[in-house]
Amino acid sequence: MSSPTSASALAPARPRLFAHIPEVPDFDPTTVKGQLTDDEKRTAIKVYAYFVGMDKKTSFAPHVASRIKFAEMNFYGRELLGKKQKRSDGKGEPVVLPTSESVLEVVVGEDMCNSFGVMHGGCAALFLDMATVSCIVNYGIATGMDTTGVSHAMNVVYHQPARIGRKIRIVARTMSMSGRIRTARGEMWDGDVLCTSCIHSIVNVSGKMERAGGKL
Fold first, then answer.
1. Is-contact 138 177, C-beta < 8 A?
2. Cα-based distances in Å from 18 to 31, 61, 81, 180, 211
3. Closest Cα to residue 100, out of 193, 4, 16?
4. Are the CB atoms for 148 and 106 separated by under 8 Å?
5. How far is residue 148's CA from residue 13's CA, in Å, rounded to a whole number?
6. For the segment 82-140, what is each residue's pLDDT rounded down to a tens digit?
7. Distance CA 95, CA 87 (A)
8. What SS3 string covers the chain?
9. Please, what CATH class does the domain formed by 28-76+99-203 belong to?
10. Cα separation of 95 and 214, whole Å?
C-alpha cells in the first residue's frame, strides 16, 4: 500500500477547494466534540451546510437536513499520516489506518415518518448519505486531500424502525480512502438499538468541486 501524503504537504489545497463556500457565521466549534481542530470543524460545517442547501429553498429536504446536529467530528490516526503503511504487520493482524468519523443527532419528526409513525426508509437513507459523505469529506479536510465526489453505490439495510419523537444517533466511519472510490459505513442508532445501516461509496470526479461543487 502506498504511503499517505503528509497533511502538511497537502494542506494548502484545502482552502482553495472550499474557498467559494461561505462561512456559517453563528457556528461555535466548541459545541461539537471530537479530535478535529476548530478550523477543521468550521470548514466541515460550512461544506455540509452548503451542499445540503440550508440556504436554498430549491434543494432537496433542507428543512429536514437543517435539524441534524453534529455531535462529534473525529480523525483517528493523524500521527500515521506521512508514514509508510504495510499491507500486513507480518502476524496476520489488520493494519490500523487513519480513520474519519462523524456523529450526528436528530429527533425524529412527523415530517420524517410514514403513515405508521416510524421514519420513512427514504429519510433514513438521506441521513445515512449525509453522515457517510460527511466523514469522507472530513477525511480530506484533515489531510488536505480532495475527497469530494458523487455517489457510486449505497447499500442500505433496515434493521428496526426509528419511531417518532425518538432522538437518534448516526455514526459514520471511513473504511477505504485509497484510489478514486472512497467508502464509509454508516449506522443509525436509537439508544442501543441499531435501526439502519449502510455501506456507501463515492467516486472522486477531478475538478468537479472547483467547477460546480461536488456532492455531499
1. no
2. 22, 23, 22, 19, 11
3. 4
4. no
5. 13
6. 766 555 556 656 666 899 999 999 999 999 999 999 999 999 999 999 999 999 999 99
7. 7
8. CCCCCCHHHHCCHHHHHCCCCCCCCCCCHHHCECCCCHHHHHHHHHHHHHHCCCCCCCCCCHHHHCCCEEEEEEEECHHHCCCCCCCCCCCCCCCCCCEEEEEEEEECCHHHECCCCEECHHHHHHHHHHHHHHHHHHHHHHHCCCCCEEEEEEEEEECCCCECCCEEEEEEEEEECCCCEEEEEEEEEECCEEEEEEEEEEECCCCHHHHCCCEC
9. alpha beta
10. 31
The C-alpha atoms of residue 112 and residue 138 are separated, in whole angstroms, by 26
Q: Which residue has the cell 469530494?
A: 148
Q: pLDDT value at position 104?
A: 98
Cβ–Cβ contacts within 10 Å for residue 56, how many? 10
Region of 70 on the Ramachandran plot (φ > 0 left; ψ -120 to 50 alpha; else beta): beta
Burial track 143-181 (b if 16+ CB lie within 10 A, e otherwise): bbbbbbbeeeebebeeeebbebebebbbbbbbbebeeee
